[in-house]
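## retry 2 of 3
previous attempt timed out at serialization; input unchanged, resubmitting
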Amino acid sequence: MTINSKISTNSEASDWNPSTVPINTEAFAGLTVVITGKLLCLERADAELLVERAGGSATGSVSGKTDVLVAGDKAGSKLEKAKGLGIEILDEKAFIAKLGIVIP
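## retry succeeded, writing output
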């Protein structure tokens, strides 16, 4: 499934595809992005695909090379590490807005 069923179960949601939805293709250009915690609107794999479509690289661990952390619910230790390293932190809403997408 490409969108979390908690958000919408209408036919428009079932047609939503992270591979083809129009996005800001420069939103994460050249940036390394880590996604952590439970996302409410997107599946993690879809969020990672959107990062890549927006010119970024999605990785699984926070390091000094991480540029942005997308923090979902219960982000935990990755969020704390990102704060300690001074990494830009976006919540899911800000992540979606930066991509310029609309979730049905």
